[in-house]
Amino acid sequence: MASYILKNGVVFAPLSQKSDISLFNCGFDFVGSPSGEGQLSLPTVLDISGCVVFPGFTDVHVHFREPGFSYKETIKSGSSAAARGGYTTVCTMPNLSPVPDSLDNLTKELDIIKSDSKINILPYGAITVGEKGEALSAMEDMAPYVVAFSDDGRGVQSEEMMLLAMQRAKKLDKIIVAHCEDNSLLHGGYIHDGEYARLHSHRGICSESEWKPIERDLHLAARTGCKYHVCHISCKESVRLIREAKKAGVDVTCETAPHYLLLDESNLKEDGRYKMNPPLRSKADREALIEGICDGTIDMIATDHAPHSKEEKSRGLERSLMGVVGLESAFPLLYTFLVKKGIIDIDMLIRLLTLNPNERFNINSPFNFEDDGNFTVFDLEKKYVIDPSEFLTMGRSTPFEGFEVYGRCRLTVAGGKIAWRENLTEN
Ligand SMILES: [Zn+2]
């Protein structure tokens, strides 16, 4: 077994128990290294001067596209990108082919995860068969193997179906994770129904298409007592509804994504890399989301990492597919534009990226560095420009291309193994 000693770094301690630890001693296997019983090996010392050791991040919302769409992303490329972004656990959405709506179909995804993943991947099971919203999936069969249930990519349109799903999930003690979108209110829209859409003659997506289903589901969650989590909230009404529901005791949590916190429709250009679902909304929406982060209404930040091929993203705002990549830029962007600007502190950011998702989704304690071997090391002073050509994800489309950020991931250890390493000197 190869062992490693990290020296000269600082270990991040949450909840204001900041302690500087100059020597962080840890033994773990190097991925792919030869190891053997009884073989004498001296520890390799990695110098992490000037870096901070954080618990590995958790992203509860990614699309790794396999099985079914491996021309967009694979478990291997997606998990490599996650590790490069500091993530040690991600939850993969079920809009795949086949959709994991039965144990058989889920096993196809689990097999690829087992052979190809560099980090901890927890798949979602679909709520309905084929994510079609017509019949419940084999939720009982899948429950022991999935992190939660979601039909992400589309909303469950029927209230009756959502009620059945919540009743079933409640019995199984699983979370319903909802992509909230009312198809009857879309009217062919593809960017936010706001000023930019009007000025440039685009068809808009109204905020109501998001908050109406949230409102419906919050009532159902209150009625059933089901644990309910809302995906990628993007507008001010959603923040308000969830804030009120939390006050009323509904078991609800939610996430937003870096692009909704840092960009709005004023940043739009006629380019597919600004197109995702839900869309970039107004300045007032963005400010309401920041407020929701600060007052704890929004529990976590997920990337909604959704890679597509170059061609699929090259058809402008109207015709490109929806979705952008996010795993390799999330931490530096949030650190640069929220923490360094004094909007939230680093403790809060680590809560949003690790503690809160792990607590809600029952994922291993993130702060137990040595036992779990899930941590990431960032050089927070390193300044650089986001360059998608460096990405390990197969997707290249991000609205943050060219942004100058601080914080470079130097090392990620997942499950005791090095999953990413960059420019670390050995001595
Ligand atoms: Zn979604």
Question: Mind sketching the topology for me?
Answer:
Blueprint (H helix, E strand, L loop, with lengths): L3 E4 L2 E2 L11 E4 L17 E4 L4 E4 L1 E6 L12 H10 L2 E6 L10 H14 L3 E4 L15 H4 L6 E2 L8 H14 L3 E3 L12 E2 L2 H5 L4 E2 L2 H17 L3 E3 L5 H12 L4 E5 L1 H5 L20 H12 L5 E2 L14 H4 L10 H10 L6 H15 L8 H4 L2 E11 L18 E11 L2 E5 L3 E2 L1
Parallel strand pairs: 1-4, 2-5, 6-7, 7-8, 9-10, 10-13, 11-12, 13-14, 14-15
Antiparallel strand pairs: 1-3, 4-19, 5-16, 16-17, 17-18
Helix pairs in contact: 4-6, 6-7, 7-9
The structure holds zinc ion.
Zinc ion binds next to loops.
Describe the structure.
With 427 residues, the chain is α/β, with parallel strands linked by helices. It has one domain (56-367): TIM Barrel (Alpha-Beta Barrel). The chain contains 13 helices and 19 strands. Helix 4 (159-172) crosses helix 6 and helix 7 (236-247) packs parallel to helix 9. It is globular and about 60 Å long. The site of zinc ion (ZN) has 5 residues, from loops. The site of zinc ion has 5 residues, from loops.
